[in-house]
Amino acid sequence: MGAGRTISEKILGAHADADARAGDIVIARLDYCMAQDGTAPLAIRSFEGMEGGEIAMKGRAAFCIDHNAPSPLRAVSDLHAQMRDFASKYGLELNDVGEGVCHQVMLDRGHVVPGSLVIGADSHTCTYGALNAFATGVGSTDLATGLLSGSLWFRVPETIKIRVRGTLEPGVFAKDIALMMVGDITADGATYMALETGGPAIEALDLDGRLCISNLAVEMGAKAGLMEADEKTRAFLEGRTRVEYEPVSPDPDAGYAEERSYDVGDLEPMVAKPHTVDNVCPVGEVEGAPVAQGLIGTCTNGRLADLRAAAEILKGRRLAPGVRLIVAPASRGVMLAALREGLIETFTECGAAVMCPGCASCVGTHQGIPGDGENVISTANRNFKGRMGNPEAFIYLASPATVAASVLEGKITDPRKYLG
Amino acid sequence: MVMKGRAHRFGDDINTDYIISGRYKFKTLDMAELSCHVMEDLDPGFADRVNEGDFLVAGKNFGCGSSREQAPLALKHAGVAAVLAQSFARIYFRNSINNGLPALVCDTSRIVDGDELEIDLQTGLISNASTGEEIRAHPLPPVMLKILSEGGLVEYMRKHGALTV
């Protein structure tokens, strides 16, 4: 291990007033806390059990109603009501039905800046690592502890440094890089560790693409999916936040547990086959498998660049007979931008069902539960058995372009066929 | 404290969707109700088979996937007294300790379904009465031991108001 420090060591150290090194356990001050409707009700119960009174994170905490929104059940409506009451009583920002997926809402509202320390009661909180924030998923009781005391304990993670170079071919996207990485590192290859991903191919991506890659960090077991900030990061934050921030770079002699490098110049569109995210292959290996439903959206691929990539293929075409397509923009902001660009019109004309911004059918509670024996091709991040609400269905994960091409043909299709 | 119970054997990468499916966990905080569906998509008979005080024994990366704290809670309410695995996914691992459900990292490769185990939480010693073998669990970090010994993080925070290392 070198004498220098990684991004994780620097951010956690700065928030704990300590020379934090991998393996150390620190208590660190939090900059922001978030919970969604699958985790907030239990966080409220834990918070009340702690009998602590006021919250330390007033003005720096948000609840988002996105996983089950609009409510499909009376019991769920009761849980949503508890969230609204708690948010109003303790001064939390409440992002109600239609605001979108919690992670995109956090980004749209500028709650995440480089160098900050954020916890979210949702495993994909690691997405914000693309903005150079140490952001990690926690459970409800950890979240309640953060709300109440303003701090939480962390084990400072070891880091895997990943360098990605090469220029992506048309039809190959950030999601394909992310799936390739999960396939290579595997579902537990980065457990307890942070990833620091960079290199020319990452610098060439827009923020939407970088966020997609950091989103999948937890699918390798990672605690954080960090990237360095650059001009694109600054431009993304322009107008979203007035908070002053200081980007954090690793020292040249920082110590890494492992270093990996990938050349994506000849990368093909990738697909994760049922029922694990690391069960990855090039699209050609599964081409022709029948598809009953597509899903374009989620915290992985529901951003504007994703909707544009799908619309480019779907424009002026129709879904294959007997095939359904669910489209859910990641947030109200993304939805508005997509409306203004005519993307929602394209989706509607091609035969898609456009949902309100939110998690849609990704989490298996509503808005598109697949039938027995059906194959789904989805832009989400998980394809576990039963994930979309039916253990008798099969979920394939791919880029928005691959999903779009596949729903046009009714079978898994290489998107390059429709491009250039 | 020494616990005795029977091993229920599972494999690698048991995710939190398998432990408690999203189609149940989003609609209720009633853990007794959720515990009827624990491991359902993977092993539909498990909730009926498991007895109070039994152990769930798995391979690597137990609890990967979502941050749902309902996963350890549903296991605990189903009667599971501890989970033993080669490794745990980190959010699940924290959630389990935070809810007072011991999560022991140890070599589970020679434990089979139905083995009778004795676990000493203080020493981390696991005795397999069915094979006569003894296995030692990795020690928990002190902060987690403290949370576990208070009966979970809610009780810890109620008593102390803030975390200390």
Key terms for this structure?
heterodimer; A: alpha/beta; Aconitase, domain 3; 14 helices; B: 165 residues; alpha/beta; 30% helix; globular
What would a concise description of this structure say?
By secondary structure, chain A is an alpha/beta fold.
What would you say this structure looks like, in words?
The complex is a heterodimer of chains A (420) and B (165). With 420 residues, chain A is of the alpha/beta class. Chain A has two domains: 7-262, Aconitase, domain 3 (2-Layer Sandwich), CATH 3.30.499.10; 270-414, Aconitase, domain 3 (2-Layer Sandwich). Chain A is 31% helix and 19% strand. Chain A is built from 14 helices and 18 strands. Chain A has helices at residues 7-16, 40-50, 74-90, 102-108, 140-149, 174-185, 200-203, 207-215, 231-237, 298-301, 304-314, 332-340, 343-350, 400-409; strands spanning 25-29, 32-36, 61-64, 93-95, 117-121, 134-137, 151-155, 159-165, 194-198, 224-226, 258-263, 270-272, 280-282, 293-297, 324-328, 353-354, 375-378, 394-397. Chain A has a five-stranded parallel β-sheet with strand order 4-3-2-5-6, sandwiched between helices. A five-stranded parallel β-sheet of chain A has the order 16-15-14-17-18. In chain A, strands 10-9-8-11 form a four-stranded parallel β-sheet. In chain A, α6 links the parallel β8 and β9 (194-198). In chain A, α6 (174-185) packs parallel to α8 (207-215) and α11 runs parallel beside α14. Chain A starts with 6 loop residues before the first helix and ends in an 11-residue tail after the last helix. By secondary structure, chain B is α/β, with parallel strands linked by helices. Chain B has a single domain (2-160), classed as Alpha-Beta Barrel (Aconitase, domain 4). Chain B is built from eight helices and seven strands, in the order βααααβαβαββββαα. Chain B has helices at residues 16-19, 22-25, 31-35, 46-49, 70-77, 90-98, 142-149, 153-160, and strands at 2-9, 55-57, 82-85, 103-105, 116-120, 125-128, 133-136. In chain B, strands 4-3-2-1-5-6-7 form a seven-stranded mixed β-sheet. The model of chain B has no long low-confidence stretch (mean pLDDT 95). Classes of the chains: A alpha/beta (420), B alpha/beta (165). The interface between A and B is large, with 57 and 46 residues.
